[in-house]
Amino acid sequence: MKVRDRLRYWFDRTMDRGTPALIGWLGLCSALMIGVVTILVVLLTNTDTEQNGGWPGVAWMSLLRTLDPGTMGGDEGSALFLSLMLIVTVGGIFIVSALIGVLTTGLEKQIDKLRKGRSRLIERGHTIVLGWSDHVFTVIGELVKANQGERRSCVVVLAEHDKVDMEEQIRARIPDTGKTRVICRSGNPLNRADLELVSPDTAKSIIVLPRAGAEADIDVMKTLLLLNNRVWRPRRPHVVAAVQRTENLAAARLAGGEAALVIDADDIAVRLVVQSHRQAGLSTVCTDLLDFAGNELYLRTEPALTGTTFGEALHAYDLGVPIGLRTADGRTLVNPDMKTLIEPGDQVIVLAEDDLLIRPSSRRPPIREEAVVEAGGRAAEPDRTLLIGWNARGTRIIDLLDRLVEPGSVVDIAAPRRPEEAMGSARANLSVRHKPCRPTSRPSLEQLDLGGYQHIVVLADDEIEPGHADDRTLVTLLHLRDIEERLGDPFSIVTEMHDDQNREVAQVTKADDFIVSSRLISLLLTQLSENRHLHGVFAALFDPSGSEIYLKPAHAYVPAGTTVNFATVLESARRRGESAIGYRLHDHSQDAPTYGVRLNPPKDVDLVLEARDSVIVLAES
């Protein structure tokens, strides 16, 4: 190979190094030109050299003319001297222009790289959100609320979207992030190299969000596999994720390993629909429990309560309501038997607005014994329920209803087509029938004889675009509300919706409950990312086989219209083996944002509960 070819190859390799190499070559060319001109001036023009301070002065003059062509305007001397200065000036114009171009290009590339979100993050104690969907805005909003008391906190989003676009959408939906910095990085969470951009080793927790679409669970499982097989230094942050389909839950938990918490979004949506169908206002209670704006659940070690019973602990706080225990061996007991002893190492699960506001009581609050209503049995009656619309969760909703309702209950499915998957099997307590119906058609709804049902559930259509599905649901709700008012309010209405913003629009229909499962799943993921030990608490609350949240008639606990305090309500529930956590005022059931629900009220403040109000309790039935 020729020497010329070797030199050219070497030069090409140096140029491949980018902007620094180009700047280096331009600097070398400048130095060579200044050196050559200085030598020529010193050798050929002795007089001019002496007048300008010798060769150092000439070198300085050449440098100035290279950087600034206007400097030559005041030069004096021989023609040869002026010609050499002109040469260095013209050469400087080309070199400096090229240098400016190189610097501008390099700076633009660096800015473009920053805009693409490809720079490595250096943070500690941050929360990582992997993936991009509508869940991300709820998650970030809740993390901002959760970190209000922190001096500095950070949330990092890694997704296959443009960094600037993600930041603009977040600013539009969450304009005030307080002390929490939200940083976005563009990358594929399924790519190991991209994952390293967000500094997972130093993170506090990682949230894996499911994206929209039928293949969402596949991405979640692959991300969990990637995280589980990664070598962590020094420790692995706790990971929380959600799958959309129940059949993928076992595989996702296997992929994530023992350290990951994976929740079943589909199963929680089914449970909420079924429980809300029987308990009007339940979704508002669940939202209050799951978000960081109102009351939250805290695990507290209370040595002063060791040796006392759980029933006695119910009156142990001025502010805060105990709902259960987390035992020293890790078991979670929600609304345990009132005689359960609190052992050393047990933690009390307390509902409160903030852990700093939980205040043990120095004395037991006054209880008005004359207002305590003794427990009385109530004969359970069969239900008549109407399901309007159909989706993939319909069969599971009916199966769960069959476990909870009394024998002889009926479920009618009002949908355009007959759902054979729900009609085939015999059930112990339910008979299932189909009534042809177009949910958005008023005449079609009126033919259903709506006055004969106690409960109506409107299911969201999963086969069309979510926004359009919510629009169709809104039309159905308007028809149902108008029909209900003409009939005299004979039934409750529970509705599934995709988007929480559409839920706010739908408030005009005055439905009893709106189930926005995507929002509730986002809230649950955020809670678990902050405290993984709450997983057992929420699992128990959403499990129909144990103690659940019930909204029961207030007059079953204290006389309607009588002035009492919440301590009296709490005691009345305790004597039934139930834990009271709040109440709901029927007259305010349509008033946002609480919809009449008040959790963890002061125990010694007077209140009056009317016949249509409810007491919110944890009970087995």
In short:
It contains 21 helices and 24 strands. With 621 residues, the protein is α/β, with parallel strands linked by helices. The longest helix is centred in the N-terminal third of the chain and has 37 residues, at 79-115.
Q: Your description of this structure?
A:
The protein contains 21 helices and 24 strands. With 621 residues, it is α/β, with parallel strands linked by helices. It folds into 5 domains: 113 residues, Helix Hairpins (Orthogonal Bundle), CATH 1.10.287.70; 132 residues, Rossmann fold (3-Layer(aba) Sandwich); 52 residues, no CATH class; 135 residues, 3-Layer(aba) Sandwich (Rossmann fold); 75 residues, 2-Layer Sandwich (Alpha-Beta Plaits). The strands form 6 sheets. A 6-stranded parallel β-sheet has the order 3-2-1-4-5-6, with helices on both faces. Helix 2 packs across helix 4, helix 4 crosses helix 5 and helix 6 runs parallel beside helix 19. The model has no long low-confidence stretch (mean pLDDT 83).
